[in-house]
Amino acid sequence: MIRTKEKQKLRKFIRELAQISGRHTELISVYVPTGYDIIKIIQHLQQEQGTANNIKSKATRENVIDSLERIIRHLRLFKATPKNGLAVFAGNASESDNKIDIKVWSLEPPEPLKTRLYRCDQTFVLDLLKDMLETKEVYGLIVMDRREATLGLLKGTLIKVVTKMTSGVPGKTRAGGQCTSLKTLVNNGSLTEIKNIKVGDKIEGLDINKNKVIDSSCLDKWLVKKNEYYVIKTAGQDIICSKDHIFFVKEKGKIIEKTAEELTTEDFLIGKRFTTKITDIDLINKPIEMIDISVKNKNFFANGLLVHNSSQRFARIREGAAKEFYKRISEAANQEFLPNQQIKGIIVGGPGPTKEEFIEYLNNEIKRKILAVKDITYTDESGLHHLVDASQDTLAEELIAEEKALLKEFFETLAKNPKSIAYGYENVKKALEYGAVSKLLISETEDDKIIDELEGLAEQMNTEVHIISVDTKEGLQLRDLAKVGAILRFPLQ
User: Fold this and answer.
1) Do residues 63 and 17 share a domain?
2) Structural domain span for residue 13
3) What is the pTM of this model?
4) Which of 103, 212, 247, 410 makes the best surface tag, with the fewest CB within 10 Å?
5) Quick one: 296 and 266 in the same domain?
6) Residue 230 in contact with residue 260, Cβ under 8 Å?
7) Which long-range contacts (CB under 8 A, 24 or more apart) does 45-51 make?
8) Biggest alpha carbon–alpha carbon distance for the chain
9) Splitting the chain (493 residues) into consecutive groups of 10 residues, what average pLDDT does each group show?
């Protein structure tokens, strides 16, 4: 992977050559691939010199022949082709029609050259170098829980969101999360408003198998705030409850369970002594405080009607919805990651065991690409950044890990020991001149002239130089702070 400093150098090189334009087809580009015999390239260029003698325009002919000669002389300086190959360019760089200024530029590229090329044109051939600026390796990122998922791509130092999803899975609630109004009556030896029930109190319920009223005990109790509620009316008693509160209904000789929002006026509710038909159901869109309790027998009589506080049915609903959501995330991962040939691996994050549950729903090809599974609290875009931060061990060889570690050191030192840090052009330049800089950090957004100046000083003082991208939040912090920062060998007075 090309480091940001190498990219900066390559961009500068390309930018310089792109500004040069020949009068005619007189600018020469030569690419020597990795491992290719440089002598053969020289022999080929000598042949091209002979061919150039046929160019009709005297000025163009002379410029081409001279440029070829300059390239040949330059190539003879090499005993062998450099490890990554060699790109050489030559041509008239003068901006004046009346002046000739033949120059040679050469670069060992940061990645191996695979293409051999010779071309004479009005512009230099730079596409092969431009391609190297594109990050080749990409990582797929997934952060998820049962309610939300975000899929992203890590490309170099850039984290990009590609898909956001929500499940509609009901939130996890204590003991079923079903509740009734504060004034709902329960029997603990006498009719008592549910708000006055205490943990440990006996509460009447029903042994459904024996059809026998029994005492159960209150295990827990808590206050719940709702934005809406149902009023279920019968010939006997009315009851105010949450939409997910479960009632026992007599239907075709069987007892089944229904939530308040599933009830109709055709339903018969199980009561303490007999069943009673629903006469009316009203949904009230108004905030209300309610009480939720958990009882040992999983049911109790509320206003004489048998209600269910078990979380089992609700849990089944959640489980089913969660499984469907896992399938949707898996399909999205297939769509986003499988066609992308650049993806080197996939990292998955999420809270608790959720992520492991989800992985079982992934395509086998996706599974094989998983490099790490991390505990992550957040499942939105910020969760992707947390996932990358938590995966530094996995990404240790990647540029983003290197930059994040370096910037972490810079900002932590700034906070704890500010005298060991310098930032801002003037302060950093002064520190460099004193030989006090251990590591020089320069934002890629800094002016090229300043970069060149500070790099020159750093080279004289044997100082590490790091060109920092702005693809990470830490890189943006450096840019916004001063664009230039330094970790010092010793504090300046």
Assistant:
1) yes
2) 4-132
3) 0.49
4) 212
5) yes
6) yes
7) 45/71, 45/72, 45/75, 45/118, 46/72, 48/118, 48/120
8) 116
9) 71 90 93 95 95 92 95 95 96 87 94 94 94 80 93 88 82 57 93 92 90 89 88 91 90 88 93 90 94 87 85 58 90 94 92 90 93 93 93 75 88 94 95 95 90 90 88 88 95 81
